[in-house]
Prior knowledge:
By secondary structure, the chain is mostly helical. The protein contains seven helices and no strands.
Amino acid sequence: MNLKTYLAEHKQVDLARQLGVTQGAVHQWAVGLSRPSAERSIQIEKATAGAVRCEDLRPDVDWAYLRGTTPTPQAPATAGSDIATAAAGKGA
């Protein structure tokens, strides 16, 4: 859910108080006049109990990497490794 949708059911001033910012700042984020920082995005996700996710607020940040949910790429097998040797039919 984006912040504007969330704020259709919740008060900007309440979220502002939770975050320690002005209601004007929350309004600017909601209508797209400015974007919250990555750090503030985390606070917004927490304050909204996950209803507004960091990915919705800042799609330019690699949140999957920061959350540790990006799959780790497998290292390619080298010619001297047991896997490469077995695959080539030269294993014991």
